């Protein structure tokens, strides 16, 4: 391989893909060496050699389901690697944000697919991280990047800190060594480049800011500190103290049964989710013992009311009627279908409840589409102090670690319930679908021993969260 790569370097030099002199970089600094692999598409033979070298490199990387080239230079390179290895490829759209509803990732993939990144040159690693962020947002796992040239300016370390192992064919030091050997450059150029490399190390702290905010890699304890909604902050703290991310859906119709379930599962949950209007023997007196249990076991009461009317009606539904939800529920759910009014009404009540906004559902045949989901996230952004989190089925948001992802449709033993509910396993929702809190209902309430079952779900979920932090 060294012989191959040496002559390949010389060929790159000959076609001006590597140049020496004085060049301005993207960020305005001067560099004595410039690599521009964009020309390579004009030299099919060189492309073939590069493909062969990359393919050889990637045989050492295990578990690759798909490939993705960093746009644009590495797109044709990734295509060649995909054709040569028969590993399918996906494409990241750079401009999708401007189009609003267009998909960021084109191609066929499954949630949790492991993607190998293909890139030509790495300086800071920021281009790779941009691509990785979008892939992760689509539920694709990224751990490895195969690249032609490591410029040795800090990119490898930055990528590593972000969970990406870089497999480079070549370092800048090796490249200039080979070119010197082949008499393409003289000693003075070698000295200049080496001096430059020493000085021009990338300031990792600036670059790390965005990627390190990826909530999936941050502990709940650290996320508590950046939560803007007080209920989210409290939840992060409860989750950390009790080591639980379990929300129990208490969809029972008798108040005694609900109180019993709360007492049994109490030690293992962070949220107790009710549909207060399904209780057949509801009396306001029922709320007091429920609040007492919640306090004793340190969990929050959560009414899954899914407010969806005009603001004025929501205000009444929230504060009045038999249930007086605002007087006891610390958290409620809301639809985004009617827009701001719902959130304004809840906020104006001044009760300090947190809201989980519904961006996706676990129901088969749901009418919610990508456009609606995105608009919901935008709406949530406008109410940072009110929104506790987002109810969804996939890691829709990564860059806002103060928000919680709540994911219902979780069960170990069933795939569906015959009425459109779709279940995933606890491990899957946390590690592949980005759930911070998992909602489990019948998986626990219908179990023979709800207390033991709640504890089991709690520990599987916590395990999955711990693994996610290390992945
Ligand atoms: N719930 C869902 N899916 C959703 C939303 C809410 O299941 O997309 I939004 C609620 C309905 C029920 C609980 O109260 O979560 C799930 O209960 P089971 O685990 O018993 O299916």
Summarize the helices and strands and which ones pair or pack.
Blueprint: H1 2-14, E1 18-24, E2 30-35, H2 44-58, E3 66-69, H3 74-85, E4 89-92, H4 96-99, E5 105-106, E6 114-122, H5 126-137, E7 141-150, H6 155-161, E8 165-171, H7 172-181, H8 187-199, H9 204-212, H10 220-224, H11 230-242, E9 246-249, H12 255-265, E10 271-274, H13 287-297, E11 300-307, H14 311-319, E12 331-334, H15 340-348, E13 354-358, H16 370-381, E14 387-391, E15 404-407, H17 426-431, E16 437-440, H18 442-445, H19 450-470
Bound molecules: 5-iodo-2'-deoxyuridine-5'-monophosphate.
Q: Nutshell version of this structure?
A:
The protein is α/β, with parallel strands linked by helices. It is built from 19 helices and 16 strands.
Question: How many structural domains can be distinguished in the coordinates?
Answer: 2
Number of H- or I-type helical stretches: 19
**Helical/strand content category:** alpha/beta
What do we call the CATH homologous superfamily of the largest domain?
A: Aldolase class I
User: How much helix is in the residues?
Assistant: 40-55%
Question: Which tags fit this structure?
Answer:
single chain; 471 residues; alpha/beta; TIM Barrel; 2 domains; 8-stranded parallel β-barrel; 6-stranded mixed sheet; 19 helices; binds 5-iodo-2'-deoxyuridine-5'-monophosphate
């Amino acid at each position: 391989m060294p012989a191959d790569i040496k002559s390949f370097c010389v060929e790159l030099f000959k076609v001006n893909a590597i140049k020496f002199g004085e060049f301005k970089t993207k960020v305005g600094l001067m560099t004595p060496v410039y690599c521009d692999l964009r020309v390579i598409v004009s030299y099919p033979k060189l492309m073939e050699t590069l493909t062969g070298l990359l393919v050889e490199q990637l045989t050492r990387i295990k578990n690759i389901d798909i490939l993705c080239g960093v746009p644009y230079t590495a797109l044709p390179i990734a295509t060649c690697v995909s054709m040569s290895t028969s590993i399918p490829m996906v494409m990241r759209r750079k401009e999708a944000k401007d189009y609003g509803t267009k998909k960021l990732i084109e191609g066929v993939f499954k949630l949790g697919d492991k993607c190998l990144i293909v890139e030509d040159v790495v300086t800071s690693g920021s281009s790779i991280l941009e691509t990785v962020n979008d892939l992760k947002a689509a539920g694709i796992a990224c751990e490895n990047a195969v690249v032609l040239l490591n410029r040795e300016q800090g990119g490898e370390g930055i990528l590593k800190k972000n969970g990406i192992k870089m497999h480079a064919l070549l370092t800048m030091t090796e490249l200039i060594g080979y070119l010197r050997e082949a008499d393409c450059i003289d000693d003075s150029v070698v000295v200049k480049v080496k001096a430059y490399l020493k000085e021009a190390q990338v300031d990792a702290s600036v670059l790390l800011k965005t990627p390190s905010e990826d909530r999936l890699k941050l502990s709940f304890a650290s996320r508590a500190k950046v939560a803007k909604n007080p209920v989210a902050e409290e939840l992060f703290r409860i989750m950390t103290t009790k080591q639980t991310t379990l929300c129990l859906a208490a969809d029972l119709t008798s108040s005694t049964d609900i109180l019993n379930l709360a007492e049994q599962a109490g030690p293992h949950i962070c949220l107790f989710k009710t549909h207060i209007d399904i209780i057949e023997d509801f009396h306001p007196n029922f709320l007091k013992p429920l609040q007492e249990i919640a306090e004793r076991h340190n969990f929050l009461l959560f009414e899954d009311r899914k407010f969806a009317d005009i603001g004025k009606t929501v205000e009444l539904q929230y504060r009045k009627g038999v249930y007086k939800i605002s007087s006891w529920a610390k958290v409620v759910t809301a639809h985004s279908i009617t827009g701001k009014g719902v959130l304004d009404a809840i906020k104006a009540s001044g009760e300090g409840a947190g809201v989980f906004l519904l961006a996706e559902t676990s129901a088969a045949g749901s009418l919610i589409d990508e456009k609606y989901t995105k608009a919901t996230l935008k709406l949530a952004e406008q109410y940072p102090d009110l929104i506790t989190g987002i109810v969804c089925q996939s890691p829709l948001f990564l860059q806002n670690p103060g928000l919680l992802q709540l994911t219902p449709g979780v069960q170990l033993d069933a795939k569906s319930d015959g009425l459109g509910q779709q279940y995933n396993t606890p491990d899957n929702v946390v590690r592949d679908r980005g759930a911070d809190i998992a909602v489990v209902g019948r998986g626990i309430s219908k179990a023979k021993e709800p207390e033991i079952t709640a504890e089991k779900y709690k520990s599987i979920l916590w395990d999955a969260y711990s693994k996610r932090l290390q992945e």
